[in-house]
Amino acid sequence: LFKGKKLPEDPGADTVDFPKRTTPAKGYELLFQPEVVRIYISLLKESKTPAILEASAGAIQNLCAGSWTYGRYIRSALRQEKGLSAVADLLTHDSERVVKAASGALRNLAVDLRNKELIGKHAIPNLVKNLPGGQQTPAKNLSEDTVVSLLSTINEVIADNLEAAKKLRETQGIEKLVLINKSGNRSEREVRAAALVLQTVWGYKELRKPLEKEGWKKSDFQV
């Protein structure tokens, strides 16, 4: 789609400059200019309208998809503009559609290693809170699609990110995942998505002893 120089994926590079333009952006190019990204972020922070929040998070999800050059710039730009927390905050929204859009955006933002670290620290508790089961009242009755989205976001965030996997364990995430897997009342897609997260967790040798101390068995993590 766009020919651009590959950027080094350097988690330490915390500033990013969009490529300098020689001609004004026009047509669909306007969709991914830095000033437009700032508009999405301010909509996320300022708007109270669920449809606008859902659309803004959805736009961010699409712009950050895949490995095209501008996707990488936008993932970094969102972090620089303090947009990650604005997206993560939407996970507590009353509207399920907003929660699902936020989850999708976070999944694509987490492809950036520095974002992944920050999302792991700050968003795992609310991602877990949205999952079915557990002691919370009242439980959110989220659709299969939303639960699967949350689970695949959690998996993206904890992959190659031990700290996030620890956070998942500390926030009662393991109980909820095992429950989705074993309770028999969740769909096949939900069970499969939860199984992937459990396998990722068990892949961390450092976590096995603490998990076994808590009473979990290897079989809980293998489906």
From TrEMBL:
The answer to whether UniProt assigns keyword Repeat to this entry is yes
Gene that encodes the chain:
Ctnnd1
Q: Which UniProt keywords apply?
A: Cell adhesion, Cell junction, Repeat
Pfam families linked to this entry: Arm
Q: Which family does it belong to?
A: Belongs to the beta-catenin family.
* Top-level taxonomic group: Eukaryota
Q: Where is this region: Disordered?
A: 1-20
Location(s) in or outside the cell? Cell junction
This protein is called: CTND1 protein
Q: Per the record, GO CC terms?
A: adherens junction; cytoplasm; nucleus; plasma membrane
ARM repeat locations? 82-119
